[in-house]
Specification:
This protein is mainly α. Helices cover 69% and strands 0% of the residues. It is built from 10 helices and no strands. Helix 1 (2-25) crosses helix 2, helix 1 packs across helix 4 (53-72) and helix 5 runs parallel beside helix 8. The longest helix is centred in the first third of the chain and has 24 residues, at 2-25.
Length: 206
């Protein structure tokens, strides 16, 4: 049991170290030597857990996807709207991207031109945004002249843009920045009757 726990800890350390190196240097320039050195393990220990750099990147992306799915696997709080849920989850995503190098690098790996796409967290995010906006439309939570598909591209472009910019400057992922985006967007999306109850700054997690 102790050996298994030690192996699990080593694997977790390698995943985080790989995320840091991939995030800093990109997939093509990152080396297994740099990853094992940062993790404080031998190259032999790294190869015991991961057969190649590509396999390690795949696991980083898979771990990041699990974290993204945990963020989006939620329902609105009692009495809250789907639009408010969308606002809240974008705030949580930005917050996690600031502090979680695995999630941040998982998004970046999906856009690496030197590496064939495996999972694509940005596409998973787009699908979730689309699903929530379609539900909001069905529940009458969008302005009558607005269609869900009209909004999907704007929300995804804005949030993915913040995600990419936030890699270098954390202020792009700040609550203040996300709130500014929603303060501009909500009046164009939500009917007046709903708008008064929506909080661009997000609400407490349900």
């Amino acid at each position: 049991m102790v050996k298994q726990e030690r192996a699990a800890r080593t694997r977790e350390t390698l995943i985080r170290s790989a995320a840091e190196v991939f995030g800093r240097e990109g997939f093509s320039k990152a080396s297994l030597t740099a990853i094992s050195s940062l993790a404080g393990v031998s190259s032999g220990a790294l190869h015991f857990h991961f057969e190649s750099k590509a396999a390690l990147a795949d696991v980083v992306e898979a771990e990041a996807l699990a974290r993204l799915l945990a963020l989006t696997r939620t329902e609105p709080a009692a009495g809250a709207s789907r639009v408010q849920l969308l606002v809240d989850v974008t705030h949580r995503l930005a917050d996690e991207l600031r502090g979680d190098v695995v999630l941040r690098t998982g998004f970046a790996l999906g856009g690496e031109p030197s590496r064939p796409a495996r999972i694509g967290l940005r596409e998973h995010w787009r699908c979730w945004v689309e699903k929530e906006l379609e539900r909001a439309e069905a529940q009458g939570e969008l302005r009558t002249e607005v269609r869900a598909q009209d909004v999907v591209a704007t929300v995804v472009a804005a949030t993915v843009g913040l995600e990419r910019l936030g890699v270098r400057e954390a202020m792009w992922l700040s609550a203040a920045t996300v709130s500014r985006v929603w303060r501009l967007l909500l009046p164009a999306v939500a009917p007046a009757a709903l708008l008064a109850d929506l909080q661009a700054g997000g609400t407490s997690p349900p």
